[in-house]
Amino acid sequence: MLMxxxxxxxxxxxxxxxxxxxxxxxxxxxxxALMNFCLIAINIYNLFRLLKSDKEYDLVExxxxxxxxxx
Length: 71
Hints:
Layout: H1 6-27, H2 30-52, H3 65-69
């Protein structure tokens, strides 16, 4: 993945969709505006799910060939 954080990706995507949705309303492209506002809703839903998650992950040290696989 090119983004180091899924939360950061969702926030950037939400900002971009908001700008694109507003622009679509200004030029009168209602299907594009609808699509962008649906994307905003999906991103906000997933952001709340990601931020509310109680999961914790621990780093496990690899041995032998497994340690070199993460390069």
